[in-house]
Every structure is written in structure tokens, then in C-alpha cells.
Amino acid sequence: MNPSPPICYGTNVHPAEDLAGILAMADGPAAAVREALGGGDPLGLALWLPAAAAAALEGSREAAAGLRARLRDRGLRIDAVNAFPSGGFHGARVKEAVYRPDWSEPARLEYTRSVARALVRLLDPGTTCTVSTVPGGWRGRAADPGAARRLALGLAEAASFLADLAAATGVRLVLAPEPEPGCTLETTEEAIAFWRRDLPLALGGAADRLLPHLGLCLDLCHAAVAGEDPAASLRRLRRAGVPVVRVQVSAALEADPAAPGEVEALRAFDEPRWLHQVGARDRLGVLHRAMDLPEVLGDLPRWTARRPWRVHFHAPLHLPSVAGVRTTRDLVAPALRAALEGGSPPALEVETYTWSAVPGFPGTPGELAAGIAAEVRFAREAAGGA
Q: Which of 102, 106, 291, 361 is the most exposed place for a label (fewest CB within 10 A)?
């Protein structure tokens, strides 16, 4: 068995919206996860940097130095960064608002620049760090033929800024849109078409300078909900020359409407905060999509003929079933083997941000830390066998 590559965990599971919240997160939940893993080596974080925190860090060398010291003292390090939700991710109702501002809005570019300016204060020269971002914007079922071009133009402008920043600081940031059901980039084929067609047009003659600052973030849960085998998706992306620079190691819910009790068990996951898109195939193999779980639960006669239902709910990674509903955990190890076949391995991030919405959610900080630690161990074992 090969040694396990580094596994970080996504801190967007914690409601830390500003710099004070991030400092408290380092002292409390993140330090507790490291302790639950036995301490010792530093624990990698995929640090969520909301707009308020990024603004505080880019505006103050002292603030950035303070966060660097706090992370170091707690045995934590930044392995990756999340610049997808710009804020409000743990509000009472998030849903489609998680994609705003999207890449059609100037505020998305400015937020991304702010995160980048903060990161060059937090990272050492010579560091390469991936930064996840929204895959364009929310489209639902509506066709928007201009959305991919707007995304490409926004990424090109961001990459130009990152290239200038790297030349000035020695920190290379790689911006990585994260395909998600219902968004501009949803499937593997859309990502490949975007990389071959839309992005080259936007980069023009600057491609050689800008492409080192762009990649793709593949979320295993999202790929499963889109009706894909994540391992096959990773191999198709590699053959097509699309650089997958981060893999979010996650599992979707998977329910068979014909199995006794599974539909009723799934109702407990219909919560009001986040979108829970659904994908399922009919008897002819055609994929059908729902933009949120209530759409399926409100139309059972139609949806019971489609199976299995894969639901965008990041299930605790180490559990084969949660509250009576199975997960796509079995897709994780093959996907990690595929991810690690290439020459330059992607960053690997456990990203189960939905712990607080899991029925029977661990009620104490210690229980949450133990749950996240169990996920990291599972991912390490799965990756170590790759």
C-alpha cells in the first residue's frame, strides 16, 4: 500500500464569517479535529475565506501575521482555500444565494482578488495553493448560451491578476471552478467543452501565461448527482487535458424509492438551508434532474420510476448509510485511485459542510470533531491504497 497523500478538510463546515470567527475556529473546532486525529503532524485545512475575513486580512499585515501565528501554534496549515461562498453560508436559508455574486457580476472578480491579496500575506513565497470558486452561476433548467463565455472572461481576468501577483510575491494561486448540478458547468463533458472552446477564446494569446493559474475542482458528490462515475470522470478530464487541481472527497445520498422505508428516511434530509439537487435515471438510462429535494418528494408517482436517487447532500464520508439512507461512499476509493494516477496529484479535501443538517447531528463540539476526524481517516485509508 502506498503512503497516504495529505488530506485536508474544508472549514466551511464551521460558521466562521469574519476574521474573529476564523481565529476562534482555529482555537476551537479545527484544533479539536487535529487532537481527535492524535495530534502530531500539522493538519491541513481547506480554509474558507468569506469576503469579510479576506478584506480584514488583505488590509492589515498585522492581522495576517496574527492568523499565521495562530494556525502555526495550533498545528494547522493552509493546504487549499475556498472562495466559493462569499458569505452567509450558514444562514437560515442559503439555497441559490450561495452562487452570488456569480461570474457575470463584477463583485465576484473583486471578491476573488481580495482573497488572493489576503493569501499572499498568509502563504510563503514558493507556495502553490488552489482556490475553489463558483462554476459560473446558477442556471437551474434554463439555457443561457452566454454563461460559459462570461465565466471564461471572468476567469481570464482573474488569472491575469493572479499571474501578476505571483510575479510580485512568489505565491502561485490556481483558481478552480467547481462543477455543480444546476450551474453553468455541471457535467464532465461541459467542463471539457469549456476548456477546449470557451476558455482558449477568452485567454487568447496570453494562454501560456494564464493557464498555470487555472484548473478544475472536481467534487465527487456533485459528479455522482450528475449521473457520473467520478473515477471515469477524472480519467476523461485527464485525457482531455483538463487539469484537475483539487478533488473534494465527498459522498452523496443514494436512495432506492422501491426499497421499504428509504423514501420516508430521505424526508428527514429535506431541510431549508441548502440546495439538495437530485439526479436519477429512468429505465432507458436517461438522466432526470430535480433542482431541490422537495421537487422529488412532491411528485413521487413520476420519480419512483427513476432509480437510484442521488441527492446533493454531503453525507459523512466514513458512513455507508446515514439515518437510514445509503451513500455513494463506495465511489470514493476508485475515484481517488483515478485522481492519483497522473503525474501531478491534486489537492485532496474532505468537504462535508452539511454536518449541522444531518439527522441526529452530533450535538457537542467533541462529537463533531470526532466525526470530521473519522472522515479524514477514511479518506487517508482510501487514498493510501491508490
A: 106
